[in-house]
Structure formats: C-alpha cells, structure tokens
UniProtKB/TrEMBL annotation:
One of its GO terms (molecular function) is ATP hydrolysis activity. GO terms for biological process: peptide transport; transmembrane transport. This is ABC transporter ATP-binding protein. InterPro entries: AAA+_ATPase (IPR003593), ABC_transp_ATP-bind (IPR050319), ABC_transporter-like_ATP-bd (IPR003439), ABC_transporter-like_CS (IPR017871), Oligopep_ABC_C (IPR013563), P-loop_NTPase (IPR027417). CDD domains: ABC_NikE_OppD_transporters.
Amino acid sequence: MAPSGERILEVRDLVKHFPLTQGIVLKRQIGAIKAVDGVSFDLHRGETLGVVGESGCGKSTLAKLLMALERPTSGGVTINGQDMTKARGAELKRMRRNIQMVMQDPYTSLNPRMTVGDIIGEPFEIHTDVAPKGDRRRKVQELLEVVGLNPEHINRYPHQFSGGQRQRIGIARGLALQPEIIICDEPVSALDVSIQAQVMNLLERLQEEFNLAYIFIAHDLSVVRHISDRVAVMYLGKIVELGKDEAIYERSAHPYTQALLSAVPVPDPEGRESRERIILQGDPPSPADPPSGCRFRTRCWKAQDICAEQEPLLEVRAGGHLSACHFAEAHDVIHA
Ligand SMILES: Nc1ncnc2c1ncn2[C@@H]1O[C@H](COP(=O)(O)OP(=O)(O)O)[C@@H](O)[C@H]1O
Ligand SMILES: [Mg+2]
C-alpha cells in the first residue's frame, strides 16, 4: 500500500461538547462534557491513521463526528474538498456513502433479527441508486466472498456466526457502498487474540484491493503499530502527538505517548536492553472539568508552572513530528 499523498479528509478544529445537565424534569445545563475539543488532522488516500488513547478520551465521538452521526459544536470536516458539516439532505447522503464505519462490538452491532444478506444489503436500501434491486443479492454474495465468508450463508442469522465471522459481516456491510474511507472503531477489541490477527490481515488486504483510507481507532498502541502509516495520540479530547508510525514508536516526544509505549510489550531481539517503565498515576481527569493549560499535567512527571498556565500547542518539536508539550524532547523508548 502506498498512500498517494492526495488529501481526502480534512478535519479542522473539531469540537463536540455534550451538555451536562442537572434535574430530572427541568433540565438545567450546568456545564459541558468536552468529548472532542479542537482536533485537526488530514487523511490521505490509501493511508491508515491510527488513533490511540485511553477509554473516554473522545475516540468514538470523533468517529461519529466524521460520519456525521453527531453534529459538531464547531469546526469542520471536509471530504474531497466538500464541507460535510454544512451539507444537508441529498448532498449529505451522497457524502456519507464515501465514509463508512466498522464498529467495535460485532455481538451487539448486528441486528439479530435480520439475515446476513439483509444486514449487508441494507445500505443498498438507503442508497437505492448504487445497485438495482435485481442485482442486490448477487452483490451481497460477492461481498461475502470478498471478506472470506461462504456466499451460501446469505440467509443465516448473526448468532449462527462466530465473533470473527460477525466482524467480517460488519466489514462487508462497510464495503457495500464502495467508500474511500473506513473508520474502524476498535474493530478487534472484542475478539479473541487468536482471531484478531485474521481480522487485521483481512482489513489490510481489503485496503490494498480497494485503495481504502482507514482511521483505525484503538486504546492500545500495540494494536495499531503494524497497520498504521501515521499515529495520532489522544488525551482528554485533544491530539497530543501526531506523526509517522516510526516517529511515534521510536522518537516519541510527548510524556503521555511515552507512558503508553512503556506499557506495550516490545520484542527485544538483542535481549540486552531493559525498558524504563512509566506508570501513570490515577485516572484521567473528567472531560467536564479538564485541567488548565496542559490537560496531561496532573499526571505528568515533567510538569512545571508553565504547564498550568499555558496550553502547549500541537506543533513540530524535537523528534520532527507534532507534539503538544512544553518540554517535548525526543526520547529513546528503549534504554540500555
Ligand atoms: N451522547 C453523549 N452524551 C454525553 N456524554 C457523552 C456522549 N457520548 C460520549 N460522551 C462522553 O464523552 C467522553 C468521550 O467518550 P467517547 O468518545 O465514547 O470516548 P472513547 O471512545 O475514547 O472511549 C466520555 O466522557 C463520554 O462519557
Ligand atoms: Mg470508544
């Protein structure tokens, strides 16, 4: 796979604040949950961008904003030069065809009362111009084949498939409208480790075959390592580090990324190096009340006064990629 460099998705200063209310009958807004709080990045044709961060940092909200399943509080999402956040009606429907999602949990995301054929073919019911009615069954069978399932099983129900097979059904559905972008929201987190590699291999093969761009969400850096061209690390609604795969894994400059990396088992072929382990203290703060300045400072061993006073911008720092840390320095993850 060779990303062409052509930008197909531009995300600019994207914000999603959910109202925080009090009272059961008369809901008063007492604040906001800052689920996504100023996220910007580009995605290129055929590229995989890994998005990594702890649970609750806003990954799924970001995915829903990109799919236009949620309206942003502010900011823009542009697909092939067209602003999706401003699109309505038929125009939005057409744009949505181009960006599809594979969900986290194949056990709950497939309707148990629908046959696999109906699940995979459902997008054709919504986008009726993609496949004429008489063609749909054949198309669904072809999709089953593409994801490595038996096309003769078209009339079976989700419970008749294993977890890995169900995720293949979800992937087939995502492919039905021939999108250019697929958002994979923790697609293997709910699967057995032995099955994860098969699904990852399938996603990689499909990417080559159809020149797909992926946004691949995970809570663990080890999952996205193999598949990503670039990686974005999120913390409390913001991207704190963004760079080429090897930059993030070998020259990470942000303490949060370094902490995540130190939790990842890395094979050490020479067997002579031991790694510094960084144990993060406590849980992330609430996105309803993030710390002033740098949001990571309350758990950061490098924090100084400036970190509480001034928000570090995501800019090119030591290491040559984007980091949002006042004290960013390239850091060899492996120590002698
Ligand atoms: N519809 C919603 N209403 C209110 N809060 C929400 C909603 N969806 C998500 N959140 C909150 O936004 C934050 C980010 O959630 P989410 O995007 O699901 O994170 P992740 O996918 O990284 O685990 C969490 O604090 C979550 O509770
Ligand atoms: Mg999530």
